[in-house]
Structures are given as structure tokens and as C-alpha cells.
Amino acid sequence: MAAPSQTQKATYDVIVIGAGIQGSFTAYHLAKCHRNTLLLEQFLLPHSRGSSHGQSRIIRSAYPQEYYSRMMPDSFRLWQQLEAETGTTLYRQTGLVMLGPAGDPGLEAYRRSLGDGQILDAAALAQRFPGFRLQAGEVAVLDSTAGVLFADRALRAVQEVFRRHGGTLRDGEKVLRIEPGATVTVTTTAGVYRAPRLIITAGAWTGAFVEPLGLRLPLQPLRIDVCYWREKQPGSAGMGSVSPCFLTLGLSQAPHGIYGLPSLEYPGLMKVCHHHGSPTDPEKRDQVLSGVPRPDIALLSSFISSYLPGLEPQPAVMETCLYTNTPDEDFILDRHPKFCNIVIGAGFSGHGFKLAPVVGKLLCELSLGEEPSHNMAPFAITRFPGVLGAAQ
Ligand SMILES: Cc1cc2nc3c(=O)[nH]c(=O)nc-3n(C[C@H](O)[C@H](O)[C@H](O)COP(=O)(O)OP(=O)(O)OC[C@H]3O[C@@H](n4cnc5c(N)ncnc54)[C@H](O)[C@@H]3O)c2cc1C
User: Fold this and answer.
1) Do 264 and 120 have their domain in common?
2) What GO terms in the biological process aspect are recorded for it (predicted)?
3) What is the domain extent for residue 34?
């Protein structure tokens, strides 16, 4: 980090704002394409105030939308490449079970994405994964490719390779102003930088960031309660660190879904969260909310009593994280409609980590004017009406 008194001035091929997993993978691909790249982060790294911190994220092949499931082989391959480049293990295969009513259209869509995803009835599930209890009329679909990504370690690894390829990462340096033009000027708390290309991957801060650039993106930051649950009997079969990941579909009591994974953060605990949260401002998400009801916790406690009876029904540890949701929960990966040398990657809606290697590649391709390797239509900014309302 530069001393605040020093004013840095420099010119780069590309500037990337935000060193979460998306900005870091974008910068990684750019540096590997021999572009002189500056990656700017407002907080000192590592930090836990965005969306990419923690030890664990689910990765799976199953996706109901074909445009994501087609990216997954590419994503698995790129994660393996990063493991090879850094000599670190970034993934543990655990399998994932999707739980829901038999015949639920959402569950069927996930199953179809696996080709012939194996269906387990209550007895087969209990035999294979003894920690889980299905309710009457419910089944599980198994994605055996799925597992847990070691999130913090992955972020460190991708930033390390970025630097190894000549990239510059400046943390503790907040971007204050962006001046568009053929050369974009970026002013931070410590310097002024110029580049012909800019990429904004600022997570929950992106909405406020792009408003002065004439864009009103429908991005909603959500405060997510991240809960860890203790086994009633430590080391009991099928729970804690030996459990598969899971997610629910079509449960009337949890329409947004509940998901869980073996906790790498707290060995022996299981991480089980509601795939939804309350609207927040990223600057205020860690405010103490004394006396405020926590409906997510009540929902999770009730779910755990029924579906994971080997866990204590009260969370042992609670933390917070941020989702940044779009109305359709699809990502935004596009050029600014007016300033084509500014590319935006945002709105990862709580499912972007596993796809970050591909997202980074696509943002790199968009920025360099190359043909994107995947269909970009679902991620266009202009799918939302009125985004250019504030155009300069
Ligand atoms: C609890 C939880 C569980 C999740 N589980 C999964 C999962 O199992 N599988 C999965 O695939 N995904 C999961 N996700 C989603 C995934 O983690 C996110 O989609 C992803 O981390 C988003 O990364 P990002 O880089 O867009 O955002 P961030 O990590 O928030 O990065 C944005 C960065 O921009 C920086 N920034 C903002 N403003 C400025 C500024 N002015 N100047 C400089 N820097 C700035 C921020 O400080 C931040 O570091 C989960 C998310 C949460 C919260």
C-alpha cells in the first residue's frame, strides 16, 4: 500500500476496481494476456466486508439455466489450472444433494442439467448420507461432481498468480472518482491512474459507483446471516465435516431455498444458510441490530429440526456476508451502454463464486474487444428497462 502522502500517478493498459473474487480473476486473465493491469481495492487485504471472504463456497455442475451449466466444465478446468499454478488444493469433492418435492419443476431442471442426475428416495438418502431426513413426498437428486471451494485460499491464489504475471495490486486505496473518455481517469485516496480500459467489479458498492456514470442498475445488496450449527453428538455419521453439500428447492416454507455445506471455518460445525436476506447498505451491514427480529434464524432452526435432526437447532456461530442481487438473479456482465471502454461485472446474486474463473475470462474478453467464449445475452445491462435514465 502506498503511504497516503505520496500521490501515485501511472498509466496502465487496464484498471480493475474491486479485488473480490470477480475482480481478482478478471485481473488474473488480463495479466496472463500480457496486459499491464492495475487492480484497486478499497480495504487492506484480506478483508471480510464484501462478498468473497470465508473459507468455503459450493461448486456444482447442476444449474437449471443452460447458460450457466454450459460454463461449469470451463470453470472446473480453470479452478484446476489455478491449483496447478499455485501448488495448492482449492477444492474438496463432497457431492451435493438437492432436496425437494418429487416432480418439482425446479428440482427437475437441476436434474436435467446433469444429464441423468441420480434420484434418491428417503431410504436411499438415509443410507448414503445418514444425517438427512426427507419429508413425505420428497426426493433428493445427487450431483456427485460438486464440492467445496476453499474461498479465502482461492482469493489469495488468484491474486498471487496475477502478481506473478506482472500485475499491480494496490489495496487500502479507495476509488473516489471515474472520469470516462478515450482514456479513463481514476482518482483514488492515494493517486490518479489512467488507462484506455476500465473494469468495475465493486460488488455491493457497484450501484452507487455507476450512478455518476449515468447508469441506474437494479442492484440490491442483501445482508445474509451466515450460520454454523453444532452436531448434537460430535463426529456422528454423515454430519459436520463429512457431510455432502445440499440445497433445497420448492419447499413452501423456504421459497428462496436453504443450502448447507461442511464448515471449513469451524471444523465439526455445519454451515446452513437461507439463500436470502434483508436489504442493506454495504457500509452498514455490520451494525448491531439489537431487538430486530431474525426471521431467517427461525426458518433455519425449524428446517434443521426436521431435515438435519443430528444438529443442535440453535446456531453455534453467526456471521454476516453480502449478496448483490439483480431482479432476475442473473449476473450483469456487459459494457457500459454509453462508454464502451468501461466494462461492468456485478449482481452475482449469491451464486457467483464457483463461476468466477469464467466470469473473469468473459470480462477480460469484453474489455479487450475479443469474441466472448460464452453466450452473453442473459447478462446484458439493457435487459433492465430504464437503466439509462440517469445518462449524462
Ligand atoms: C454467505 C455467502 C455464501 C455464498 N455461497 C456461495 C456458494 O456457495 N457458491 C457460489 O458460487 N457463490 C456463493 N456466494 C456468492 C459469491 O461469494 C459472490 O457472488 C462473490 O463473492 C462476489 O464477488 P465480487 O468480487 O463481485 O464481490 P466482492 O467480494 O464484494 O468484491 C468487491 C470488491 O470491491 C471493492 N470495492 C468496492 N468499492 C470500491 C472502491 N470505491 N474502491 C476500491 N475498491 C472497492 C470491495 O471492497 C470489495 O473487495 C456466497 C455469498 C455469500 C455472501
Assistant:
1) yes
2) L-lysine catabolic process to acetyl-CoA via L-pipecolate
3) 8-53+152-219+328-383
Decide whether any atom of ligand 1 lies within 6 Å of the 326 Cβ.
Answer: no
- Which residues are CB-contacts of 168 (< 8 A; sequence separation ≥ 6)? 12, 37, 38, 39
Average pLDDT, the chain: 93
161 closest CA partner among 18, 360, 13, 355? 360
3-state secondary structure of 377: helix
Cα of 135 vs centre of ligand 1, distance in Å, is: 34
321 touches ligand 1 (CB under 6 Å): yes
**21 CA to centre of ligand 1 in angstroms:** 6
Indicate if ligand 1 lies below 6 Å from the C-beta of 245.
no
| pLDDT category of residue 6 using cuts at 50, 70 and 90 | low
Domain final position from 303, 324, 345: 324
User: First vs last Cα of the chain: how many Å apart?
Assistant: 34
ipTM for the predicted complex comes to 0.99
Q: What is the CATH number of the domain that holds 362?
A: 3.50.50.60
351 CB near ligand 1 (under 6 Å): yes
The answer to whether the CB of 24 is under 6 A from ligand 1 is no
| In a shared domain, residues 237 and 369 | no
- The pLDDT-based confidence of 145 (bands split at 50, 70, 90) is very high
Strands 220-230 and 197-200: unpaired
